[in-house]
């Protein structure tokens, strides 16, 4: 049997030209390329659906490990830098921040900070969302830190859902002291003012380690609306809120055990 493309005498045969129905010579048609099978496309789509979240989680965990030693910027700070607005922040260790400010944050923002694993499940179940989106009341300090460092500002159910696994990861990787340290170094305390050190110097003209209990309570009271609230010249409402925070601080007693 002769090999394909050869005649009986071993000579290579020329490809035969095709003709149309009238007998006119036509062009040699190339063999069509096989189209991807539907199963192949599905496998590629599934692979992408798996790889994207896995790579995202890996990136976040890698950053979390780096941020154990390096104080990160917040996404708000990055946004201001990229837009040319600038931001003021001087990162300091937790030891350089008045214990009253730490105590005030726990008293006002997350009284079960030392007890939960990053997410207060009881608070999440009990919160009733209003028409503007999820309530701030369900956010632990760890969840707020995750939002400030890794996510975008504003309220949305998607962002709230993403805060939960991030907070669990941060609590496991950083622990309580590092989480509070990062929180107090990235929290916004005015237009372009970030972190406790910059806030203390801007509003009270002193380093964060020298804040009084009253000044610490005013800074904490400003956290939910840092652009509109002025800790140095507080309104009657802000003074009243700071007073209630001081009462909570007194009820909690000294510095929380997990912060010592």
Automatic annotation (TrEMBL):
Pathway: Cell wall biogenesis; peptidoglycan biosynthesis. One of its GO terms (cellular component) is plasma membrane. The keyword Cytoplasm does not apply. Residues 85-242 form the Glycosyl transferase family domain. Pfam families: Transgly. Residues 8-24 have a biased composition (Basic and acidic residues). It is found in: Cell inner membrane. GO terms for molecular function: pentosyltransferase activity; peptidoglycan glycosyltransferase activity. Residues 1-41 are annotated as: Disordered. GO terms for biological process: cell wall organization; peptidoglycan biosynthetic process; regulation of cell shape. It comes from the Bacteria. Its EC number is 2.4.99.28. It is a single-pass membrane protein. Residues 29-38 have a biased composition (Low complexity). Keywords: Cell inner membrane, Cell membrane, Cell shape, Cell wall biogenesis/degradation, Glycosyltransferase, Membrane, Peptidoglycan synthesis, Transferase, Transmembrane, Transmembrane helix. The chain crosses the membrane at residues 46-67. It catalyses: [GlcNAc-(1->4)-Mur2Ac(oyl-L-Ala-gamma-D-Glu-L-Lys-D-Ala-D-Ala)](n)-di-trans,octa-cis-undecaprenyl diphosphate + beta-D-GlcNAc-(1->4)-Mur2Ac(oyl-L-Ala-gamma-D-Glu-L-Lys-D-Ala-D-Ala)-di-trans,octa-cis-undecaprenyl diphosphate = [GlcNAc-(1->4)-Mur2Ac(oyl-L-Ala-gamma-D-Glu-L-Lys-D-Ala-D-Ala)](n+1)-di-trans,octa-cis-undecaprenyl diphosphate + di-trans,octa-cis-undecaprenyl diphosphate + H(+). InterPro entries: Glyco_trans_51 (IPR001264), Lysozyme-like_dom_sf (IPR023346), PBP_transglycosylase (IPR036950), Pep_trsgly (IPR011812). Belongs to the glycosyltransferase 51 family. PANTHER family: BIOSYNTHETIC PEPTIDOGLYCAN TRANSGLYCOSYLASE, MONOFUNCTIONAL BIOSYNTHETIC PEPTIDOGLYCAN TRANSGLYCOSYLASE. HAMAP family: PGT_MtgA. Peptidoglycan polymerase that catalyzes glycan chain elongation from lipid-linked precursors. This is Biosynthetic peptidoglycan transglycosylase. It comes from Methylobacterium oryzihabitans. The gene is mtgA.
């Amino acid at each position: 049997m002769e090999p394909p493309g050869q005649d009986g005498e071993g000579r290579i045969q020329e490809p035969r030209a095709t003709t149309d129905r009238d007998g006119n010579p036509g062009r040699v048609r190339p063999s069509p390329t096989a189209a991807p099978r539907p199963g192949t496309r599905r496998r590629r789509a599934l692979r992408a659906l798996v790889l994207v979240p896995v790579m995202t989680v890996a990136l976040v965990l890698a950053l979390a490990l780096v941020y154990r030693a390096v104080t990160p910027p917040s996404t708000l700070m990055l946004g201001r830098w990229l837009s040319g607005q600038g931001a003021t922040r001087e990162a300091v260790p937790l030891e350089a921040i008045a214990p009253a400010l730490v105590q005030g944050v726990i008293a006002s923002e997350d009284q079960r900070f030392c007890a939960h694993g990053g997410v207060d499940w009881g608070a999440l179940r009990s919160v009733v969302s209003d028409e503007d989106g999820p309530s701030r009341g369900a956010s632990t300090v760890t969840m707020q830190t995750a939002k400030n460092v890794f996510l975008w500002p504003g309220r949305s159910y998607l962002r709230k859902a993403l805060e939960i696994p991030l907070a669990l990861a941060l609590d496991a990787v950083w622990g309580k002291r590092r989480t509070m340290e990062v929180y107090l170094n990235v929290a916004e305390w005015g237009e372009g003012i970030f972190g406790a050190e910059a806030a203390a110097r801007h509003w009270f003209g002193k380093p964060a380690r020298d804040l009084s209990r009253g000044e610490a309570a005013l800074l904490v009271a400003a956290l939910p609306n840092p652009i509109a609230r002025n800790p140095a010249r507080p309104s009657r409402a802000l003074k009243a809120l700071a007073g209630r925070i001081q009462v909570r601080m007194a009820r909690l007693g000294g510095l929380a055990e997990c912060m010592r």
